[in-house]
Write a structure and sequence with these properties.
By secondary structure, the chain is mainly β. The chain has 2 helices and 30 strands. A hairpin with a 3-residue loop joins strand 5 and strand 6.
Length: 402
């Protein structure tokens, strides 16, 4: 199966710092439910056509709710499941989101030098070496809070020396001399209030179809224990291969370790969201299933605890029917296919499309997925060449007439 979790980004603040901060109104992206928000950025550029899945929690405290999620390139994400858990001593609101067939989120969308002026508060570009600053990007540099967000272009020409950008708090309390800086495309979550224990787990998933959602669900559970006792609840996910992701949030932290073990059939599990408590209060897991049928994400708790468990299942790209084109084709042939010149693979320029696909293919050969979609020909009596498996290329758009 082709689908896999390529990378994970986590926002995990200490409770005393609060997860929400003033992002302010980000002009030109989406309507914001609140000025309060959290952001996270991936360590690597995402691949074109990836699906982004996000799981968020906040301490409810009688009023605090997760509202919406979006990023600075792809806009609004689709909300999947929202659960309020106040059972027993539990006190949290959780919500899941996803964005299929997403455009590239860059780990360094702009780079150069700049300085901060607290009188604005503003960020000023001094020199630009590469890239573009998008509203909502996170500004990074020595002495700069990792949560300084670009709010709007205030004056000058975007991305050029002298351009001035408005940044909301906490940038207003600092003056920083000219230094090397960069911005990162960010995923932004909004809340209706500034609350506590606000955590986010974002995943980049590759190798899934362009419209991959096969199933999703979530539920709360009270004082459950034993193998696979913490469950999302089973839903029909079809008979085609899927990548299934589960996230379990511990609501009362009665049994250590608080983060449960993975459920039966799940090979990949990681504890997350420490909130400066010494150990994770949540866990995420994922695995490929060839024929999921009606299935749940399950976890095994350390003892009798309360949980909220979410599940998202994404259809593997290998399950999409593909007939009429040879599986492995030379790179030059693949570049002529209309199916690789659409969607996120289309930048409006044939030569640039080809160059982009070549860059992706080289990266795939250097670090192949399972199964791979690009490889070097090993035929004995011909020169080495790059071969492409079109239906497995991230962002591939299935021909409607096949």
């Amino acid at each position: 199966m082709a689908s896999s979790v390529r990378q994970v980004a986590i926002w995990d603040p200490a409770p005393s710092q609060f997860g929400a901060y003033s992002v302010g109104t980000l002009s030109g992206i989406v309507a914001d439910a609140s000025a309060q928000g959290s952001t996270v950025s991936f360590a690597l550029d995402t691949l074109p056509g990836s699906t982004i899945v996000v799981f968020v929690m906040t301490a409810y405290d009688g009023a605090n709710l997760v509202t919406n999620c979006y990023d600075t390139i792809n806009g609004q994400y689709t909300a999947l499941d929202a659960v309020l858990n106040t059972v027993g001593t539990s006190n949290m609101h959780t919500k899941s989101f996803y964005k299929p067939n997403a455009g590239v989120l860059k780990a360094a969308s702009w780079a150069g030098t700049g300085h901060m002026n607290s009188a604005g508060p503003v960020f000023v570009i001094d020199t630009t070496t590469q890239g573009h600053i998008s509203v909502g990007d996170v500004l990074q540099g020595a002495g700069v809070s990792s949560k300084v967000v670009i709010q709007s272009l205030f004056s000058g020409v975007a991305d050029t020396p002298g351009a001035t950008y408005v940044t909301p708090a906490p940038a207003g309390s600092v003056n920083i001399a000219t230094q090397a800086m960069n911005t990162a495309n960010s995923i932004i979550v909004r809340y209706n209030n500034s609350g506590d224990f606000e955590g986010m787990i974002a995943m980049e998933v590759t190798g899934v179809s362009a419209s991959p959602l096969a199933g999703h669900t979530a539920q709360t559970l009270t004082t459950v224990s034993g193998t696979d006792a913490a469950t999302s609840g089973a839903v029909a996910c079809g008979s085609s291969p899927v990548l299934m992701i589960g996230v379990a949030f511990n609501g009362n932290d009665a049994s250590s370790p608080f983060a449960p073990a993975q459920g039966t059939g799940f090979a990949h599990r990681t504890a997350a969201l420490l909130f400066n408590q010494g150990q994770g209060l949540a866990a995420y897991e994922y695995n490929n299933f060839a024929n999921p049928g009606t299935k749940a994400a399950t976890f095994t708790p350390s003892g009798a605890d309360d949980f909220t468990v979410h599940m998202v299942a994404l259809q593997d790209s290998s399950s999409v029917a593909f007939n009429g084109i040879v599986k492995w084709v030379p790179f030059d042939w693949a570049c002529r296919l209309h199916s690789l010149q659409q969607g996120t693979l289309n930048v409006g320029n044939t030569q640039q499309n080809k160059a982009n696909l070549l860059t992706l293919a080289k990266a795939q050969i250097a670090s192949p997925s399972n199964p791979p979609w690009a490889k070097i020909s090993t035929a004995a009596n011909e020169p080495k060449k790059i071969l492409i498996c079109p239906p497995l290329v991230p962002g591939y758009v299935r021909p409607v007439n096949y």
